[in-house]
Specification:
The chain starts with a strand and ends with a strand. The protein folds into four domains: 5-140, Response regulator (Rossmann fold, 3-Layer(aba) Sandwich); 143-249, PAS domain (Beta-Lactamase), CATH 3.30.450; 255-357; 364-509, Histidine kinase-like ATPase, C-terminal domain (Heat Shock Protein 90), CATH 3.30.565. Helix 2 packs parallel to helix 3 and helix 11 packs parallel to helix 15. It is an alpha/beta fold. The protein has helices at residues 13-25, 37-47, 64-74, 88-95, 109-142, 161-167, 171-174, 179-182, 197-202, 251-311, 317-357, 369-386, 403-419, 453-456, 477-487, and strands at 5-9, 29-34, 51-55, 79-83, 101-104, 146-151, 156-159, 184-187, 208-209, 214-217, 223-234, 240-249, 364-367, 389-393, 399-402, 427-436, 439-446, 491-496, 502-509.
Amino acid sequence: MEKTKIIVVEDESIVAEDIRQSLLKMGYEVPAVVATGKEAVRKTEELKPDLVLMDIILREKMNGIEAADAIHSIIDVPIIYLTAYSDEKTIGKAKLTEPFGYIIKPFDDREVKSTIEMALYKSGIERKLKENREWLFTVLKSIGDAVIAADDKGAVIFMNSVSEMLTGWSEEEAKGKNLSEIFRILSAESGKPIENPLELLLGGGAAGGLAGDAALISRDGTEIRIDDSSAPIVNRKGEITGVVLVFRDVTERRQIENERNKLLLELRMKNRELEEILYASSHDLRSPLVNVEGYTGEITNSVKSLFSLLQDEQISPSAKEKMASVAESISDSEKFVKAGVSKMASLLSGLMYVSLAGSELHETREIDMNALIAKINDEFKPWLKEEDARIEISQLPPCRGDIRQINQVFSNLIENSVKFLDPGRKGIIKVSGRIEEGQSVYCVEDNGIGIPIKYQEDIFKMFHQLDPKNTAGDGIGLAIASLAVERHNGRIWLESEPGKGSRFFVALPRA
């Protein structure tokens, strides 16, 4: 560890040597002992000591006080004065050079030691404070946001370059002026003044920000949209000693947000038009399909009746055989047409539900989920009986939403569970619910065959069908459920393992 270097400035050679020997015994290093103020300045600049012991009264023209002042203009080093005088006039002059202590002649080693150590300690603390202050000053000056600080009277004491640019005031011009004069704000919507955070904070208010429509009025009258945060400056005693404001220009961001909102509104209107067209088209196309299915049956029945009559006529066996073959072919065609019509009707129904699920919520209200699932259970009873299955309903918490869409969500989930039941055992579909993190979370669980992992990632995508061997679905039901849940700002997810059934979870807003 390096020794502390001390320069001694004393024009009495015997005293100077005595001080040097005392310092060496104390463990300090004395790189130089000088007798004049001019030499003291030169040696201090050259050797850069840790401390200077300076006699106030020197024989030459430059005294110790003047030498200390010259040294401080060159290098930051602590100075302790040596003096045989303790009069107020001498001490008063010495104070102007901000010394770190005084040693009155004659002195003893303990006094010298304690004064030096205290001076070194204070110097170290001040150096760290100065470095921290310079570092903070540099950060605040170079930060991308505007920063203004004011004292407890509201007078500006600091501004960085960004705040100068936005307010139109230079730091030099603004210093000492009231913050409310430099930082003028009003509501961009109403044009009315907004309470300046200065008064709020100095009055004991908490840190915070301005309203979202705040505008800064610069020195030349330009209106600038800003976001801001403000906080009081509090000392160790908890006393407010000032305030600091941090703000930024958000004019461009506000313009982008406005344009985006306009675009979203236009897209929403277009989307609504498309949904109405899709719903109407799907609805209108179902009627011709019903007619096609009906007429196909009538044609088949008419042909069968005709062939039945011809059977009684005197025709050859070969002709009868051909007629039977034609009748069978027509019957097969009828089945094919009806299956196609049924598939088309299912798709069109799906598209109708898609338009509903993707549309705006018509009416949101508290929904009694116990009553809703019980109603779905009644509707599914014939199918459940055919599949040897049942639905078990636990006590369910209510939720808030559009009852048509929520009904469709759980109808589709239960229908999906029925499709994936295991033919080899009695099917059980459990519907349960709980409150979790401010939401109503429901689970539709079955003991079916489960869903293969490779299909699970895309399970909620439109027209995503699973293995045709396992389902006759059209790939719309789960997509509709997902759309409707998303429209309610909810969440839907799946947990399934082949052979162990599936669990569909739905999180919806609480009632």
